[in-house]
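User: quick one, fold this
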Amino acid sequence: MHIPVLLEETIEALDVQPGGRYIDCTVGGGGHAAAILEHSSPGGQLLGIDADPKAVEIARARLEAYGDSILLVNENFANLQDICIKYGFFPVHGILFDLGLSSLQLNGDGRGFSFQQDAPLDMRLSPSQEVTAANIVNTYPEAELSHIIKTYGEERYSHQIARFIVQQRPITSTLHLTHIIEQAVRGRRGRIHPATRTFQALRIAVNRELENLEAALRQAVDLLGIEGRLAVISYHSLEDRIVKQFMQQEAKDCICPPSAPTCVCQHKASLKLITKKVITPSPSEVQYNPRSRSAKLRIAKRIITPDEQYKLAGSPSFGLGIEARAWRRPALAEKLRRTILGLQIYTF
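Assistant:
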């Protein structure tokens, strides 16, 4: 069974309320989704998205009891806005990204995510994707392979590993690749297994994880209603850096370079940081769930910009939506959504 990471902290971060509408962009085993549905009852709704069709089927079985309150979609969250438009699922009160692999994917599901299980070098979250880890390992030039391992794995021995891989092609399985990496870094072992960073790099490259995350974060802001929450759990520095920089940028009114004499960007803050410091698992959580040890949770809240305030001021539902938090009453929230839908600005 997949154990959801930072579960209590996530529910608090999203400020889950009865009747709310939420999106879990990485539904996985359904642990976070079940907790969100429980805390948003009665009247809560959740859209669960996952690129992995196996994860969607497992989540569907786990969340079956919630009936029409849950909508599950097998898609990549890079298409978040299109998914929400297709199903009319906006605006929303909270969006969650839990970016780690689930225990189901790591515990030998035959796709080669783990260097501890013998499996084909696949690493695709979705079978519809064309590029596999085997394609990268067996066909990419040494320089490009080294760049991937260094950039996405932050591996200091990327050149040696890439050279050993090219010399011993074709590579047929995860354990074969693991053995080659161990040979390449012989005598240079650190605190983690020498194959950890290379496997991370290959998985990120195969699934375009960083590019998809950047695209999805931009879309998430536009889907949030005013005071809606954005919560992101990351597991390595590359993801966390993207999330941190994105939230910090969207929390500023000006993003011009410090050398600029005057502001020319016309950027206005759309987010407010809820916590300045990242949230990490407690020692007790790490003890019973060691895979949570690298997790980092960041939270931001959607705010209204001056331009949006001006456009919304003419709406008869503006004051009611902001001050009375009309989203607690689903019928009124829907009326408000229809009133301001043409403006592409959402509030509750």
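User: anything notable?
Assistant: The two ends are 36 Å apart (CA to CA).
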